[in-house]
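ENTRY TYPE: paired fold submission
RECORD: A
CONTENT: sequence, then structure tokens
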Amino acid sequence: MLGRFKYLVIIPLLFGLSGCSVILQKSNPNDLDKIDNLSSKLEQERKAREELLRAKNELEEQLKREVEEKQIKIEMLNKGLVITFVDEILFDSGKAIIKKNAYTILDRVADVLNNQVRDRNIAIEGHTDNQPIVKSQWKSNWELSTARATSVLHYLTDNKNVDPQRLSAVGYGEYRPVDSNDTTAGRQQNRRVEITVLPETIIKQKKK
């Protein structure tokens, strides 16, 4: 009776093991490639985040006074490392010409862009409040915000040798506020330029 019981136990066990073997053999070979690709992507994202965090720390050190005076904000967001300038630190009201005393600030930012995150794409955004343009060359806040973003782009490329392949500029006018336009303080926060260092690396275009 005992011997018969042993056979009853062994047979299901062998059947179970053979079943596992069949499942493994039927696995799609592409699954391993997918796992490898996912692992590689996660590693790239980890390295990108570490690189952006180092750049953030360096910027906070270089722009300590401006950050303390709330003229500049530096933060890590889902889209990347975002450097936000209150518009008055860079421009006079209704203007898109960078103030001369803002050059040193942009110089320090450019140094980090060129040395800490030299292979990352950079997006420059111009934003305004919802107050209509009065006595200005600009037709609307669209044009003003775009011109300001482009001015910053040209300063970085023309004066600080930031690779133009890394850069893009766009103006959103009044349509992406971060605060209420019903208060003076809120409108001040909405009038801004953002430089975002993106996690993605640049793809170099071959010169013809």
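RECORD: B
CONTENT: sequence, then structure tokens
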Amino acid sequence: MEHVAIKQKEFWNGKAQVFPRYEPCENNYEARMLNIAKKHGVDFTGQKILDVGCGTGMYTIRLAQEAASVLGTDISEEMLDILNTDAKRENITNLRTVLTDWKDFETDERFDLIFCSMTPAVHDNYTREKLFKYTDRWLIFMGFAGVMQSDVMAEVYRHHGVTQRKFNNGKDMEDWLVENKREFTAYPVEGEWVQNRHAEGMAVCCRNMLSSYDVEMDESFILSHIENFKNSDGSYTERIKYKIEMIICEI
């Protein structure tokens, strides 16, 4: 298990520099997702929030702009470094971070709301039940519903003889809630992420995604392949189709 945790940390540290980060605008993907929660009746204003698997803080900083306080946890110190840098830039002073795997996290604190977005840290009975240990009212969980398809990675996987894993943590969470007789509302969301990167950033993403499979990387293929996604301005664009479930539980 310790070996698995180390591999997870290495994987997410490897993604940190090319991972999406907080953007201060009100019409992007993160803002739209939080608006879905608000329409359901969730009010982030003045709340004490725990963000599990917070990553670079795309949601964490946005939540802190409304909440009384936010605590973000993540296994990747490099992700948290980016979060703290961006929080400082945005003059956020009510946000703390803890470097930890969720399964190892312990605190005497309780929270009005626990927020989890696309995190593999919540994946079994123990880590799911633990969410309810620390929340007094709300749980917001976002996970994939079977689809995360990258136009860049599709051919990379095929070339390396890899079958892409299914991403179903949203549906898995729904099944667990039903089995454990916990009430929830689920909102299906689908769309396309568009991510612009420089050449090395695109290559790093390809290498990182392949690193979770036991294959020998064909570096020359990767470097040649990403040229198919080069724009006239020299940037590179990846498009990722997704289906997500936003699951909201009120305790």
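NOTES ON RECORD B: The mean pLDDT is 94. Residues 2-15 form the longest helix (14 residues).
STATUS: closed
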